[in-house]
Amino acid sequence: MTYGLSNFVNHGRVVGLGLLTAAAIAVSAAAAEYPDKDIKMIIPFGAGGGSDTLARTIAGVIEEMKLIPVKILPENRTGGSGAVGYSVVAKEKGDPYHLATVSVSFFTTPLLGGSPVSYKDFTPLAAIAQSPYIMVVPTSSEYQKLDDLKKTPRFTTGTTGVVSDAALLAKMTSNALGIQIDSVPFDGEGEVMAALLGGHVNVGFLNPSEAMAQMKAGKLRPLAITSAERSPAFPDIPTFKELGYGEILHTQLRGLVMPADVPPEVVTYWEGILQKVATSEQWKKQYIDRFHDIPDYVDAEGFKQVLERTNARYETMMKELGIIK
Amino acid sequence: METLALLWDGILAATDPAIFACTILGAVVGLLIGALPGLGPTAGVAIMLPVAAGFGGVAAIACLGGVYYGSMFGGAITSILLGIPGDAPSVMTVIDGYPMAQKGEAGRALGTSVFASFVGGLLGIAGLVALSVPVSRYALAFGPTEMTAMMCFALSLLSVLGGRNAFKGFVALALGLWLGMVGLDPISALPRYTGGSMNLFDGLDFSIVAVGLFGLTAIFTSLEANVDKPVAKYTFASLLPRMSDAVQTRWQLLQGSVLGFFVGVLPGVGASAATMLSYALAKRLSPTPEKYGTGIVEGVAAPEAANNSASYGAMIPLFTLGIPGSATTAVMMGGLIMIGLQPGPLLFTENPQFVWSVFGSFAIGNLALVFLTLLLTPLLAAALFVPTAYLYPIVIAIVVYGVFAIDNSTFNVMLTILAGGAGIILARLDYPAVPLILGLVLGPLLERNIRRTLIQSQGDLLVFIERPIALGLFIATVLVLSIPLFLKLTGRKKIAADEAEV
């Protein structure tokens, strides 16, 4: 009995200690000594994938430019469609020593009920690039420009997984053009591309880097791009907005988040760092030019709004599809 | 001609020291695994998968490939010297190899097997190189409808040729199909059989399950298999392949290689079936069939050429269509995915450098194995007598550490051990593990492609027979499924059973 009691007391002490540490961290951050130890960059996906490359490139550029006095340590924590890794970050509430990048699963896994944490459990810091989508058809198809699609009532497109940006864009395009584009879920970008090139689906909404190779090879014809302005990498592809479909505007923001409730000074600190990254030659060379993204700096407030809008879009789509109630 | 130039570039690329080292490492590990009774190519590739994944890129797949065809060389050593098959694809080698050893011709038998393996490998690589480019070009025609038909064909071959006990095979297959459903529903995104666990959301990773089910189970079960037979005597000089034997067995080598290759290409059938068919063919075509089984070089050459060329044939559906037709290629597919490559029609156009370097490493590995096998045979024969109490704990430690290292997941380690344990129970009850793993791999592919087809056709089932490739494959499926019925009606015996490995 006494043993149990003393255990309880010890436990209480540990909690007290933890609170003190948290307070100490907050104070030291406020005292502008932040950061004073290495920062963990949690990557919720496997090594070698898109999210992994993004996270490691950002960490690499910050290190190369010596923007912070400490190291960023990337760590892959995979599983549960991102839920495992994102939970690791979110549970460090208020701790400004955990970073993560945003991905499609950042929104969709929580919406599906597959994760104990959602976008609300994170503090957006800033975004440093946006990745648009390019709507394409095979070169062999009869459709030369976007409005030609109106001649045919029904199309199919391939998407990676059920809830994805491609599926979302198919829905938006269907509504805007008054046609029906059904999404066929595949298991990866490679499969989607094979289905498109093999003529098993008619249209595609592709990442710039995926579309680039096949457009150069003359296999795919671009119809429109989903960004607000034309992309510097593809000056000849018109935006949906130009073509009269201003409502089709959707890009993926490449940005960083921290756990919820980190002090506002920390957010300001990172806005400064990421603005330098976004405009740097290293970032342009190592990421933008490689993946043909659009260079763009979005501050914490703007990034937060985009995250909320993206989440709302996914949520609406999933409700329409009957996936969630 | 262009293909040859590409292969030559690939061979040059594969001479890169790191890739070469990984190829040789894979080949030596394969030799050892093949020689150890009970451990076959699937177990070998499964054991090396977590380690090789760390090498990344070409080196990783060159290493796994090395284990695969290396074990085909190694299996013969045990079969000939001890009369125990080193693995399932070398069962047929025992029939003539061991009597040769008893007659005092162990060296000659080993030399013949090495030469036959080399020729089979060479012709297999030639077939792989010649066919994979045209097949991959045609592979884009394989949409969801055709893939559905292909899966049905593969599963029909698996169920008809799959083993001694068809009923138990079906049960294992059904178990695999069920396990393949765990995780998010691929089309409607609802969780299935996850029990609310975050870790099961992505489903069961088949390569992790295979590492347990083949790697660990094989080790656990062969702990009891002690080698207590004396090793047949041979001299090193007698190992060298003889010109006269090569000429004498030229037709068996050719038949075995060609037949093995095409049997290997068929999904659902693998190297073991190839060796049985090739031995049976050699015997049937021989003017003196009664000599087979008494210890003649032809009886060693035919199956050894077949199992090597079959291993390359099996890689065609894997590399071109992304369909693993056998348990070993299923594990290799896991390796491809781990290093971030999607096997399928686009692999050849988007990563030609990768594909040709890997093929180049096969050519180098096949040649290197001739020397490695001859040089290492004395050592490998000795390794058979290293107490399993020393050897296997080391292997298990490497497997467990390797699985953890893939993505720092303790869940995967537990899954591997669990699969290993389940594998022992299955083995004890005499349920084959191959249909289970193929069910786990092919089941989700089948389900997804049926549902994709139906989304495209808006629920119209007629599309399955309207498309010519799909129709052809469905007809082939029906024909394969009616083979047992046909054999029963004509009063013939069952088809040669494919024991442990497909």
From TrEMBL, chain A:
Keywords: Signal
Keyword set includes Transmembrane: no
Signal peptide as annotated in the record: 1-31
Family membership noted in the UniProt record: Belongs to the UPF0065 (bug) family.
Name of protein: Tripartite tricarboxylate transporter substrate binding protein
Source organism: Mesorhizobium mediterraneum
From TrEMBL, chain B:
Positions in coiled-coil regions: none
Record's keyword annotation contains Cytoplasm: no
Ranges annotated as spanning the membrane: 18-39, 46-70, 76-98, 110-132, 138-158, 165-184, 204-223, 258-282, 318-341, 353-376, 382-404, 411-429, 469-487
Keywords associated with the record: Membrane, Transmembrane, Transmembrane helix
InterPro entries per UniProt: DUF112_TM
Pfam family, one: TctA
Residue ranges occupied by any DUF112 domain in the UniProt entry: 22-438
Keyword Zinc-finger: no
UniProt cross-references to PANTHER family, sorted A to Z: TRICARBOXYLIC TRANSPORT PROTEIN
Protein name: TctA subunit of the tripartite Tricarboxylate transport(TTT) family protein
Organism encoding this protein: Mesorhizobium mediterraneum
